[in-house]
Amino acid sequence: MRIGLFVRNFSGGGAEYVSVLLANGLVSQGHSVCFFVLDSVGPNKCKLDNQIEIIELTSKRLISCAFALRKAIKESGIEKLISNMTHENIVSLVATCGVKVGVIGVEHNNFLEEMRRRGWIIYQITKTLVKVLYPRLHSLVCVSEGVRSEFDRYFHGGFSNLRTIYNPIVGDGEKAPISWGNKFIVGAGRLTKQKNFKMLIQAYSILVKHYGYDGDLVILGEGSEKTSLEYFASELGLQNRVFLLGYVANPYSYFLVADCFVLSSLWEGFGNVIVEALLAGCKVVSTDCKYGPSEILENGEYGSLVRIFNAEELAVAIQNELSLSRSKQALVSRGREFSTSVAVKKYLEVLGC
After folding, report:
1. What is the pLDDT at residue 115?
2. How does pLDDT run across 63-110, given as a tens digit for each residue?
3. Contact assessment for residue 114 and residue 89, using Cβ atoms and an 8 Å cutoff
4. Residue in 262, 250, 273, 281 with CA at minimum distance from that of residue 215
5. What is the predicted pLDDT for the residue at 173?
6. What helix, strand, coil percent values describe the chain, rounded to 5?
7. Helix (H) or strand (E) holding 2
């Protein structure tokens, strides 16, 4: 089957990373795959199988690219299109109107939180377009049961084509552990309000000052809050112990030797980085945000869960996790349950292959 995937670019985000893994998995099963992108740039591009065709659209803005996408789809000869994220799904449905191409839309995040934070007007427009256009989807894939349940509840069971498929995640077994020179706790993700790294730094400060933790805090990722986070760490007197290292292509080498991985998000759709940490046998502490972490960690069996907006509770959970003896093999085995092969098999069922 000839299959297309639509993303804006190959940036370091979770949706882009997962799309590349899925595309590679589809190619390994003998399918012809192409990517439609607004810009063929980003660190995830180098991870693509060299058999995958990249089709860069002539329009560089999502809001106005429907015609360019429609033209590219017709010329590519694809039979199915996998689109990622709400606004991309809407554009894909507009572009394929009257074209015999089935669209599989993938929701990667907490829909309500994402839309509410874009402002009332965007929220209302998006909600209306979803109600009108999403019934045309061949299938709507949600990356966690929480996201699926939210969609079903919010739209009053209006979609009969909902399906949960957990994201495919891989560890990099060939990556050597990082040589840091001191023990450390690690966090990873875009430096945005959603990821709430300010609370992680607060919790780390409590861990240092009240529990005597003598390791560092390492944060991997880029984003708009980098400067403010560095300033906040400095205000707490931790400028020489909190390290914001920017984007790291594969954080696995850090997870292999970290004392603990911490996810401090206010909301998620799945939580790819938790699985990456588990695959390295790294202990995990996460906020019990909507949605994903509790499903991955099986309500605390494979890591600790705490409430959002509670730095002290997060610090206590980290301290408890550091003193807890966990089987690395059990953590790795749990991580392997979210393998690419499992996800690809389920996507092939949705695609009708």
Report:
1. 81
2. 899 999 999 999 999 999 999 999 999 999 999 999 999 999 999 999
3. no
4. 262
5. 59
6. 45, 20, 40
7. strand 2-6
Give dist(CA 296, CA 301) in Å, integer.
9
Give the integer Cα–Cα distance in Å for 317 and 236.
21
Query: DSSP assignment, residue 144?
Result: S
Give first-to-last CA distance, the chain, whole Å. Answer: 8
- With 0-12 / 13-18 / 19 or more C-beta atoms within 10 angstroms meaning exposed / middle / buried, residue 326 is middle
* Nearest Cα to Cα of residue 261 among 335, 349, 338, 165: 335
Residue 175, pLDDT above cutoff 80: no
Can you read off the two tokens belonging to residue 189? 């993700």
* Spatial separation of the C-alpha atoms in residues 74 and 195, rounded to whole Å: 39
Residue 24 host element (H or E): helix 14-28
DSSP H/E element including 106: strand 102-107
Considering the domain architecture, whether residues 123 and 229 belong to the same structural domain is answered as no
Is the domain of 93 the same as that of 195?
no
Reduced to 3 states (helix: H, G, I; strand: E, B; else coil), residue 271 is coil
The pair of three-digit structure tokens given for residue 169, joined into one six-digit string: 């995640």
* Torsion angles phi and psi, residue 245, rounded to 5: -95, -5
Tell me which residue range forms the domain holding 317.
Answer: 184-336
- At 338 the pLDDT is 95
Q: What is the pLDDT of residue 71?
A: 97
Q: Is residue 74 included in any domain, yes or no?
A: yes
Asked whether residue 99 falls in the same domain as residue 218, the answer is no
- Both structure tokens of 2: 């000839």
pLDDT value at position 174?
57
Contact 38, 8 (CB under 8 A): yes
CA distances to 29, 83, 161, 208, 258 from 181, rounded to whole Å, are 43, 43, 51, 18, 11
Q: pLDDT band for position 120 (50/70/90)?
A: confident
Q: How many domains does the chain have?
A: 2
